[in-house]
Design goal:
The chain contains six helices and 18 strands. By secondary structure, it is of the alpha+beta class. Strand 15 and strand 16 form a beta hairpin.
Amino acid sequence: MTDAHIPNSRATPDWKELPYERTSFEKAIELTPIAGYTGRYSGYAPKDWCTPQLDDRGSCVHGGYISALLIAGSRKYFLSQHPDLNQPDPITMHVQFLQLAPEGQFHVLFKDIRLNPRHSIIQAEFLSPDLNVHTSYTLAICTMGDLNSNSGISIKLPPISTPNREEECGRWTNGFFYHITPTSSSCRCYNPNDGPEIMWSPKVGQNKREQWSKLDSGHNFTLEHLGALADLIPPIPLNYERSALKGVLKYEFPTLSLSFDFRSDPAGKKEWILLRTTMNKLENGRFDMDVQMIDDNGDLVATVRHSTLMFSHKRGKSTKESKL
């Protein structure tokens, strides 16, 4: 695996530059407190952290980007409002996507639901920037705690087995996929290469995928990155498409919700995360994806539950029906 240091722009034969300047992840998730309002912040969703629609809907904010914002915002909010509780991290987060959010200015609003010395619960809302009559795009419930706490009952389990990146995996790149979904190029990805397609391996099954991910920026993963990473997984139904990733031209895959259980904070110390994804059922246009995020040591970093729809592309579809 001698090419892990090469960015996607140089490793992708059919790479096509975007017609606008890219924004770093760190810059894109910046939030500014709004004077005179408790728990309300403003931000700007840049075009390269949005998903272009294949009809007349323009670009809409990427769901993983929204999840990353809510992680960053929950930390900022709780530290400013309740520093004495020592609960700096979201340890669980359920994100419910209500409707498409347009690129550009937005507000995020945080409210306390229940404060407790052990764990606290807050609500987060991603909404339009109008202070008077706003549109709500995404709601989330976060349980706040301390991911670095070593107190409480524990059972030591064996490390989780992972595929060997050097001997069993190959890098996949796809200029077409990167161009129509710009957020997807933010990671360098390596999958087991023993299958008919790099997207799936017969050893684990066609309804599953194992994918090592490394940030294309060269940075290591933070907790905020896990929010984005969870929604960068190519939908498992594409494993069954003869055209593989080009199946995104035929189908839409709007995410209804994401449920996170964070087990540790990467804290900028982890270069690689394995995404072990399983689709348990696709029926009547609805499927799930269960995701384990595992580090190089076989430790579980987080689990994520996707609830997702799948339907054929239709022009002029209402923006209130999907996230992507």
